[in-house]
């Protein structure tokens, strides 16, 4: 009888601790909301630029040819494929900021690690969690690829076709480069955001704070965009395939390299556009996130 009472008491204590933990995490919901709204703003502004960049990554062509392809597709197709990145980014950026904050607090509370290690671990874990939404990137790739325009009608039709005809696993094609990209890029973003902002002139007004946040986010986005650009090229190639064997990432990478005359620099076709898009994109995300966080 004493054993049962002890077990029941421990179970109640564990339940109370879990509830307290969930309540503590719930107090940070503003980070999720601000992250989601920041991503929404960014996607609406930068989507056409992303389409040009996508064509360059997929086909290894120059910006002029990518623009001509979009012109041939017509204005009505310019925002074709918008819904997947809108759903994916508003969710993953919310997780990026929200989970990072929550996991940082939880790890600091329950793990006796140095703060730098705790925050890096939280950033990597948040990035790994974001990879759950890989199917959105998968569908976006197919809808933006002009070779699949006649096969896939819209977001829901693409999801239904992939899952119904090929299985759920097909929705996660290209997962490995996404995992290799998300964790390290999150760790670098959150690790360098504070130090970079400290090097900027001290802001005295709300407008100056907004400018500093934009510059900080833009610089980090541009740097990380260049650093992880080959992984995005690899991901785009893997996700443009429908059906067939799941080739190892290493094999696909060397196939791309061979097609581009064995020159690593040719993997960076579109990187200059990605650089400018990343400055704008992550500048908007960081500045909007910080602004909304102050207003909430």
From TrEMBL:
The UniProt keywords, alphabetically, are:
Membrane, Mitochondrion, Mitochondrion inner membrane, Repeat, Transmembrane, Transmembrane helix, Transport
Q: Name one Pfam family in it.
A: Mito_carr
Query: Source species, please?
Result: Scleropages formosus (Asian bonytongue)
InterPro entries under this entry? MCP_dom_sf, MCP_transmembrane, Mito_NAD+_Carrier
Q: Which SUPFAM superfamilies match?
A: Mitochondrial carrier
Q: What is this protein called?
A: Solute carrier family 25 member 51-like
Gene Ontology annotations of biological process type = mitochondrial NAD transmembrane transport
The family database entries (Gene3D superfamilies) matched by this protein are listed as: Mitochondrial carrier domain (1.50.40.10)
Q: How does it sit in the membrane?
A: Multi-pass membrane protein
Establish whether keyword Cell membrane is in the entry.
no
Subcellular location field: Mitochondrion inner membrane
Superkingdom as given in the UniProt entry: Eukaryota
Its main subcellular localisation, reduced to a broad class, is mitochondrion
- CC annotations in GO: mitochondrial inner membrane
Q: Which family does it belong to?
A: Belongs to the mitochondrial carrier (TC 2.A.29) family.
Question: Lineage of this protein's species?
Answer: Eukaryota, Metazoa, Chordata, Craniata, Vertebrata
Gene Ontology terms for molecular function = NAD transmembrane transporter activity
Report each Solcar repeat as a residue range.
29-106, 114-199
């Amino acid at each position: 009888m004493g054993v049962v009472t002890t077990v029941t008491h421990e179970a109640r204590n564990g339940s109370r601790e879990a509830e307290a933990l969930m309540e503590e995490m719930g107090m940070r919901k503003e980070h999720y909301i601000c992250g989601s709204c920041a991503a929404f703003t960014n996607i609406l502004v930068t989507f056409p630029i992303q389409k040009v960049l996508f064509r360059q990554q997929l086909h290894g062509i120059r910006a002029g040819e990518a623009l001509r392809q979009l012109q041939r597709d017509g204005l009505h197709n310019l925002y074709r494929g918008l819904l997947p990145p809108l759903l994916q980014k508003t969710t993953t950026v919310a997780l990026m900021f929200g989970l990072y904050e929550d996991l940082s607090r939880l790890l600091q509370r329950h793990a006796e690690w140095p703060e730098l290690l705790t925050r890096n671990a939280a950033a990597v874990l948040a990035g790994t969690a974001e990879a759950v939404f890989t199917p959105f990137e998968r569908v976006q790739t197919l809808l933006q690829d002009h070779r699949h325009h006649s096969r896939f009608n819209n977001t829901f039709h693409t999801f239904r076709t992939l899952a119904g005809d090929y299985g759920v696993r097909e929705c996660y094609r290209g997962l490995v480069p996404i995992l290799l990209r998300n964790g390290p890029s999150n760790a670098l973003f959150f690790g360098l955001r504070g130090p970079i902002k400290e090097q900027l002139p001290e802001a005295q007004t709300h407008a100056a704070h907004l400018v500093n946040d934009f510059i900080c986010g833009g610089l980090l986005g541009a740097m990380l965009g260049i650093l992880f650009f080959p992984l995005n090229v690899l991901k785009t190639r893997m996700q443009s395939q429908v059906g067939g064997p799941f080739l190892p990432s290493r094999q696909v990478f060397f196939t791309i390299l061979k097609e581009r005359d064995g020159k690593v620099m040719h993997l960076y076709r579109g990187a200059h556009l990605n650089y400018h898009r990343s400055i704008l994109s992550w500048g908007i995300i960081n500045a909007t996130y910080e602004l909304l966080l102050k207003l909430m």
